[in-house]
């Protein structure tokens, strides 16, 4: 018997240098595979089960994600003025 693990790609946390990014994933990437994030950053994948201590949102990725899903973008969104907080 083989154990099958389901990974919800909408729930995957892509963390680079303490920032949580978003990307359009059609399947779980293989370790070492490069992925392009919505903000334009490209990096290779590694897996861990331990969360980083302090993780901040990549606001350009968040903005792209909200637009792609048709979610409301509040006027107080951190990237609405083009600057990152």
Q: Care to describe what's here?
A:
By secondary structure, this protein is α+β, with helices and mostly antiparallel strands. It has a domain at 14-69. The protein is built from 1 helix and 5 strands; from the N terminus they run βββββα. The protein has one helix at 59-69; strands at 14-16, 19-21, 34-36, 42-44, 56-57. A 3-stranded mixed beta sheet has the order 1-2-5. A hairpin with a 2-residue loop joins β1 and β2.
Judging from the principal axes of the Cα atoms, what is the shape? globular
Mean pLDDT: 87
Give the low-confidence spans.
Answer: none
Distance between the termini: 49 Å
Q: Classify the helix fraction into a percent range.
A: 10-25%
Q: Could you give a short account of the major beta sheet? A: 3 strands, mixed
Structural class: alpha+beta
- Total of helices: 1
């Amino acid at each position: 018997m083989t154990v099958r693990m389901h990974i919800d790609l909408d729930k995957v946390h892509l963390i680079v240098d303490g920032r949580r990014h978003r990307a359009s994933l059609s399947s779980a990437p293989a370790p070492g595979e490069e992925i392009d994030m919505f903000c334009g950053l490209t990096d290779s994948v590694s897996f861990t089960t331990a969360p980083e201590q302090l993780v901040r949102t990549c606001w350009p990725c968040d903005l792209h994600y909200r637009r792609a899903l048709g979610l409301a973008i509040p006027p107080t969104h951190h990237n609405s003025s083009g600057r990152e907080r």
